[in-house]
Each structure stands twice: as C-alpha cells, then as structure tokens.
Design brief:
- The chain is α+β, with helices and mostly antiparallel strands.
- It has 9 helices and 8 strands.
- It has helices at residues 11-20, 37-43, 61-75, 93-110, 155-164, 178-188, 190-197, 208-215, 224-229; strands spanning 30-33, 52-55, 80-83, 113-118, 129-137, 140-150, 167-177, 235-240.
- A 5-stranded mixed barrel has the order 4-7-5-6-8.
- A hairpin with a 2-residue loop joins strand 5 and strand 6 (140-150).
- The longest helix has 18 residues, at 93-110.
Length: 241
C-alpha cells in the first residue's frame, strides 16, 4: 500500500493497472488479511467489496490460492486463473502482458500449470530458483518443462545455478485453469481441498464469510511452491528477461 517509488501510486495500484488492460475489473480478486480490506478498496475503488477475499489469519500462499480457486469455480468452472504478488516492479509492461497472454493460452490448451521465470542477472540468495529442461515445449523456445524448484540457496549454490544457465528466478506469478489447480490440490494437498470442498455450498453466497472464518485457520501453513508446484508433473515455465 506504500508509494515507495514516488510515482503517486502504491504497488498494489500499479499491479492492478498492469493487468487492467487485459482483464476487466469484475474479474479481479484480492486475497489479503481481513484487516486490510478497507485499504484494498481505497486503493482499488474499481472493485466491489465481495472481490476482496479476507483471510482471518495468515496461512502462506497455498490456502489463499485455494480460497480464490474455489470461489472462481463457483462463478466460472472454466476460468483461467492468474496469481500475482501485489509488490512487483515491472517497467516494460507491454512485454509483460505479452508473456502473460502467451502463458494463459498455453495453460488453456495443455491443462498445464505455468510459472514465469526471470533470467537472473546475479547470484542472488533472496530468490527461489527454477531449473528448466533444455528442450523447448510445443515448438516455443521460451516455454520449458520445470525440472526442479529450489528455495533461496546460499551464495555458492546460487553461483553454480547462474553458471549452469539452467536456472531462472521464480517470479511467484502462476497461471492455470481453475479445474487444473483444484485437481492439483486434491492430489497433493488433500487436507486443504477436503476442507474447501466441504464449503461448496457457501462460495459466492452470504454464507461464505462464516465458512472461511470457521475453517481457514485449520489449513496448514504452506506455500503453493512447496505444497504443489514442487510435486506436480505438469508444471511449465515461460522464461522471460
């Protein structure tokens, strides 16, 4: 919510505007702690209150992504879902939107889970890394199968990653069809999917808040990377600069 760059706009505002050129306002969802709902609506006045998914407690990225996926399925079972952090600095937004559109189109055809990999410029220890398969997928040089995910390495390991040429920074941006990610939860994180399946009656109804308030805290505290992306076989990366 801060204007760190001195542009007159917060990071979340920049994130919204970056996607608003390809996604209509009614298709946005913001997952955040419940205490931030008023701030979200202040920074993004285009959104309605029901578009802010309120987490009663923090449980890392897997449970809040599950919340968004089950909500989206109740509205449109065939939706393509884009997950993005709200604090990225992206200067070449036109190129970024091309990358997102190409990734979305790939997930729709392949029933794949996609992430965006960033060409590393230094052996940074503050980022996760994605190891790519050297063979392009579907005749597209930028799209590769993911071999491994590695969380923040030490400096020596990061240098090896950079020298190998096989590793990209993990941007934390993910794309998939709603049905694809829900099947992945059912296979790899049933303790989350079973809980949300029990709330199918509630999503996109006045009962949703009560269900989330009563059940969200019981979800394991786990990231989407560790819980699903590192285990699934249908994960691909679009390599960007």
């Amino acid at each position: 919510f801060l204007d760190i760059l001195g542009t007159g706009k917060s990071f979340i505002r920049h994130t919204y505007e970056r996607f608003a050129k390809i996604i209509p306002p009614e298709n946005f969802l913001v997952a955040t702690n419940s205490i931030y709902k008023p701030l979200v609506l202040e920074h993004l006045p285009e959104l309605k209150a029901h578009q802010v998914l309120c987490e009663p407690v923090g449980r890392n990225t897997a449970p809040c992504i599950a919340y968004a996926a089950w909500r989206l399925r109740s509205v449109n079972p065939d939706a393509t879902m884009i997950v993005t952090p709200a604090d990225h600095l992206i200067l070449n937004e036109e190129e970024f939107r091309k990358v997102i559109s190409e990734s979305a189109e790939f997930t729709e055809r392949q029933h794949a889970m996609m992430t965006i990999g960033i060409q590393p410029s230094r052996p940074d220890t503050g980022y996760g890394y994605i190891q790519i398969d050297p063979v392009p997928v579907d005749g597209r040089p930028a799209i590769r199968k993911v071999k491994t995910f590695t969380e923040k390495p030490n400096l020596e390991m990061a240098k090896i990653f950079i020298e190998s040429g096989e590793f990209f920074w993990n941007s934390g941006i993910f794309l998939w069809n709603v049905q694809t990610i829900i099947k992945a939860f059912q296979r790899h994180l049933p303790e989350i999917s079973n809980r949300f399946e029990a709330g199918n009656y509630a999503f996109n109804t006045p009962q949703e808040k009560q269900f989330i308030d009563e059940n969200f805290a019981a979800c394991p505290n786990i990231s989407i990377d560790f819980g699903i992306m590192e285990k699934a076989s249908n994960v691909f990366v679009l390599c960007a600069d």
